[in-house]
Design a protein that fits this description.
alpha+beta, three-stranded antiparallel sheet, TonB_C, signal, Fusion Protein Consisting Of Minor Coat Protein, Glycine Rich Linker, Tola, And A His Tag, Chain: A, Domain 2, 125 residues
Length: 125
């Protein structure tokens, strides 16, 4: 049940923003990074499958914002999370770190570039 709530929350709130890794300059890419074999839906499902809700301490609605970089080779790096519940934050980082499938990188002028993603997560306990 908890996984289905997380999955539902991910479906409704999956957002992506493109920018360079330096925070002072943002660019729009001609092709955004995307997850292969099912795209965002498959990524959200893998994230929900990897998430261990029993490890989260808290009650009510818990949320965080997961931020990571899709590198030019498609790997995920620089995973950071902001949120009030530390156990939820740690579990979100652990869940995304278990996803080993490489992304299709963003492209600018036909050249792969780094791409920031932001994913809001929420769960009701």
């Amino acid at each position: 049940m908890k996984k289905s709530l997380l999955f539902f929350a991910l479906i409704l709130s999956f957002l992506a923003f493109a920018q360079t890794v330096s925070a002072d300059s943002a660019v729009v890419t001609e092709k955004t990074a995307h997850f292969p074999d099912g795209g965002a839906k498959n990524f959200r499902q893998l994230l929900a499958d990897n998430f261990r809700s029993k490890k989260v301490k808290g009650s009510g609605k818990v949320s965080c914002q997961l931020k990571f970089v899709v590198e030019t080779d498609g790997s995920i790096t620089n995973v950071t999370v902001t949120g009030d519940n530390e156990s939820f934050n740690k579990e979100a980082v652990r869940a995304i770190s278990l996803i080993k499938t490489k992304w299709e990188p963003a492209k600018m002028n036909g050249v792969p570039v780094r791409y920031w993603f932001k994913v809001p997560l929420s769960m009701i306990f």
